[in-house]
Amino acid sequence: MDNYRGLKDKVIVVTGGCGDIGGATTRKLAGLGARVVVFDIWDPEAGRDHARRLGAAEYLKVDQGNASEVHQGIAAVSRDFGRLDVVIGNAAHLSIGRLLERTAQDWEQSLRVNVVGCAMLAQAAVTQMLKQPLDETGIRGKILFTSSWVGSYPYPGSIDYCASKAALDHLTRLVAQEYASQGIRVNAVAPGILDGGASRRAVEKKPELRKMMLASIPCGELGTSEQVAESFVFLCSSESNYMTGHILFVDGGCSLTKRE
Length: 260
Fold this sequence. Notes:
The chain has 8 helices and 7 strands, in the order βαβαβαβαβαβαααβ. It is α/β, with parallel strands linked by helices. The chain has a 7-stranded parallel beta sheet, sandwiched between helices. Helix 5 links the parallel strand 5 (141-146) and strand 6 (184-191).
């Protein structure tokens, strides 16, 4: 189709776009005709090369945990491309540890990137989106986040990460509530345990973790970044225009009680 799901020429920012989920999402959206701008903390030359291989239109070195960089990056995209249709706050700081093992600095870093960073991304995006007219479907823009199933269902061993994702879920609902009447939709995708990213690195270090992970998944298999990316494609598309404030679980049933 020339404009599959209304994505052709849409301007979409993906933070953490050089990672597994961000890269898969960028590749799928670019393949459907969207103009994707990748934000990440890679060296600019390496980031541009990687983003080009993903099909992205541009790469900007932006740290989601730095409010001024986020605001400047979003303003630059809106200026250079003439519009901002979607932002996906996908970058995250993953931490491992239980309560007595975590310092105040550990908590501050998780919250700075995973909560405050997403709030600043939403603030910057809303500021730009309110300046632009509604599109042909009555939407000014969309703000999406990568949450996690552990934001709703505690998983031992990553206390500050889990708490930050719980906060992100409520941030999603609150921003959705504030701007729904002005044509801005806000949703999040909550992946489960993936064969990629931090989960894969953890298994590489401790192979015995794979058995424990699989025991948490009723579907019996690890998810993929591409499956998560498909959900982002749907939420970016015009087919999800009546959804806002929703946390979409893509977790193979991790959020369910597994029954043998």
